[in-house]
Amino acid sequence: METPIRTDVVQTTDASTPVSWASIAAGAVVAAASSLGLLALGVGLGLSSISPWAGSGVSASTFKNATGIYLVLVAVMSSAIGGYLAARLRTRWIGVNTNEVFFRDTAHGLITWAFATVLSASVLAAAATHIVGGVASGAGAAAGQAAQSVDPSRVFFDRLFRTDAIAPPASPASANDARADARRLWASSFSAGADLVPADRTYLARVVASQTGMSQADAERRVNDVIVEAKSAADTARKAAAKLAFWLTASLLFGAFASTLAAVEGGQLRDGTWQDRRLVPRPWY
């Protein structure tokens, strides 16, 4: 029985052009647009799952893990769509070894993923930033938008110079000078990842004592406690950034794999045959 000749695909005998940039560009654009749409959906789901009220919404750890998993899913789905389209839209070669066709389909999927990744990171960066910025502004509105314009490190200086006295023992000008002096010491020591030297730590405790009316021993204890809190906050931020980097790496790897696998499937169907309105894929060998 003769195999029906397909007339729904473009065929070429020019095997010297193994890369079809037109199909790669088309698949990359679709993949990038799909990523943006899925990112917007994820923002909506994320805002729906959190709440400023205690005991309501998902926990912080659950939210972070769910965000990482969703990034991987977005990469897999968008990359699979782009790789599949790049393979299906590519012209069909005649007289090329099946193993070579398999390799070229895989390469088309990988190049499509790389093109879509670069496109998403450059051209669509502004749109993605706008979407993520909407999340930040929404979260800030729930927690107080004034806090977003404040330097996060200022909370530690507020804790240093907090006093329970009704009337502060120092004038406002003196208090501002003390805060500025403490900020300079803080920035010069912690910017390089170092700790306050004993002399600076003692001096800072003396300044805190003069501004709050505390004893020198209590001021030194407060300085030590605030330094520990600052380091703990910095360490938490470091771990969160490292975890996000690992999730992004995983999403890129899974996206590349999904794009190549979908491209192979698209190539199988592109070179298959129609039998009674049923598409039979090309054999793998």
Question: How would you characterize this protein structure?
Answer:
Helix content is 69%, strand content 4%. It is mainly alpha-helical. The protein has two domains: 11-149 and 241-280, no CATH class; 154-233, no CATH class. A hairpin with a 2-residue loop joins β3 (273-275) and β4. The radius of gyration is 30 Å and the shape is elongated. The relative contact order is 0.15. Mean pLDDT is 76; it is low at 1-11 and 135-150.
Query: Which class do the helix and strand fractions yield?
Result: mainly alpha
Distance between the termini: 21 Å
Report the portion of residues in β strands.
Answer: under 5%
The number of domains: 2
Q: Percent helix among the residues?
A: 55-70%
Strand order of the largest sheet: 1-2
The dominant shape is elongated
How many helices?
Answer: 8
pLDDT averaged residue by residue: 76
- Low-confidence parts, pLDDT < 50 over ≥5 residues? 1-11, 135-150
Strand segment tally: 4
Radius of gyration (CA) equals: 30 Å
Biggest β-sheet: count, sense, barrel?
2 strands, parallel
Write the H/E string, N to C: EHHEHHHHHHEE
